[in-house]
Structures are given as structure tokens and as C-alpha cells.
Amino acid sequence: MNANLPQTPLPYKVMAIYKFADLPDAEAIQPVLAKFCCARDIRGTLILAPEGINGTVAGTVEAVDALAGWLFAGEVFGGRLAGAEVKYSTAIEMPFLRMKVRLKPEIVTLRAPEANPAKSVGTYVEAQDWNSLIERNDVVLVDTRNDYEVGLGTFQRALDPATKSFTEFKDYVAEHLDPARDKKVAMFCTGGIRCEKASSYLLSQGFEEVFHLKGGILKYLEVVPENESRFAGECFVFDERVSVGHGLVEGDATLCRACRHPLTADDRASADYVDGVSCAYCVGEADKHAAAAERQKQMDLAKLRGAAHLGDDAAKLASRRKAEKRAQAEASRERNRAD
Questions:
Q1: Which of 231, 249, 280, 332 has the fewest CB neighbours in a 10 Å radius?
Q2: Whether pTM exceeds 0.85
Q3: Is 259 a catalytic residue?
Q4: Catalytic, out of 37, 38, 189, 282
Q5: Helix segments in 227-310, DSSP class H
């Protein structure tokens, strides 16, 4: 099996990263990390917490490579991110509107102190070994992602916890899994981070053998040929690409701009779907539709002008126009004083 499937060179490089690491200085690191990224026009979201780092960013190849070098070999982190789980892909357009570095209590929120990946996690399973594991009859396969993610695609035979947020996963375990019955549990998520905590949590609850897909669905789609794949559909990603498929190519899914629910081609064929305004998942929420309709109107007008409406590009344009107006006003005052 190839190390990775070939990807078409595209203008933007996307880096997804996470690492559970001891970062008691996360608050001090935040502005330094933000400054480094913004100086190179890198965009996306990185989460810092005392337990580590998590996030996805994009930029030019040179910018993202510089960030990777700074994270892994720079003095700020001092080698604490060595061995981080990192996945690279590409994008036709910049998939993020702005750069955000956020401080949070956890890099993935479960609110279960007993789940500590720094102390114990399940058994990592490489992507190329995943098929043989999940095809076993004595293995319970669980998708740890939320319902809207599962709706776009999942592994065959996987159980769907139908959670709205990861914090609900604890309730699912208590109600549907039993360590006395479910001797072998295999789990997966988008990039691997949720499974780190989920596997640690299951071990704390007395489950004996817990497995999780190393690198998550993204790694699986990167290295497993489509004709050997057990993954059906597309994988939801948290950026403007919305979803990716085998080889990490951009998928067909879009977002409802009113409720942010991912939409398949069938969803967009619904009578309740209005581009940029509404979909079948938020059909009864008129207040969201009004705001979305106005937003779509402004985006369409900005597009006609060839200008950005959202994100850092819009902020830069607004700042430039403001500076131009100030300069014009100052020039006018100078002319008046001369007269």
C-alpha cells in the first residue's frame, strides 16, 4: 500500500495538527503564535490549552512549511510538539476567512477529568491495518463524531452515537456500551484527537481492549485506495471546503449559511433549500433566514464589485478605504488652509 495517495498540486497547503503536551504557558504563547501566522497570511484556527494544541490552518506552501518548522523546532515550544499528529492536504481557494488562536481549558472538550491521554490511551491502529480490524465480528465499531458529521459519511457497520456535541459521548457510553459485554471497542473520528480522549475515557470506565484509528478518517482517506476503502461518503472538515473524499480531494458538500449544517446534493435538491438562506434542517427558523438572506445579499453585491465581504480580506479592504478617506479629508483641509 502506498504511503499516501497522489494529490493534485493546488495553491494552498492545509495543515491539521494536534498534540497532547504539557503547555502551562499556553496564555503566553497565544499572542506570539498569532503574530507568526498573521505575518505570513496564514489563516485558520489553532486552540491552545494546558493539555496541548489542536487546529487546522492554511496558507502558501512556504508559509505553512515555515509554521511547521517553527512549531516543531522553534524555541517557543522547545520540542514539546515533537511527534504531533499532522496531516497535510491542498485547497483550490483559501479555506479560512481569518486567523484565530484561542485559549481553552481543553483542546477537545469532553469535561471528563478521568480521561487523560497523557497517562493512558487505547491501542493505535494504522490506517492500512484498519480494515482487517473492523471486519472482525468481535469488534464493536463506534463513530465518535457528531450526528451532522456522520450524516455525510462513515465506516460501514459503525454505530452512530447521534451526539450533538462531544460532551454527550459520556452519556452514550453509559447507556449503550457495557465493558462486560463489549470486550473490544474500535473508534474513529476526523483526525484522531477525539478518539485519544474517548479511548482514555473508555479505559477509565473499565473497558479492556480499546482501539482507535491513528490519524483518523483523514489519514485513512489519504493512504487507503478507494477500491479498498470501507468508508462510504465524504468526511466533514471544519473549514470552507466542508468535506473531503479519497485522496483528500475537496468533496461535494456545502454549508447552509443559516444553520451551518452540511448539505449533500440531495439536501440541496429539497424544496426547502434556498442558496445561502435556508435548508430542510432549519426550515422553521425564520429569524435565521432573514439574517442569512441579508448576508447573502451583501455577499452578492461585494462579489459584483470584486471585493471581499467577510474575513481578513474584508477587514483589510475596509482599513484601506478608511485610510484613503482620511487622506482625502486631510488633503481637503490642506487645500482649504492654502486658500
A1: 332
A2: no
A3: no
A4: 189
A5: 265-268, 286-305
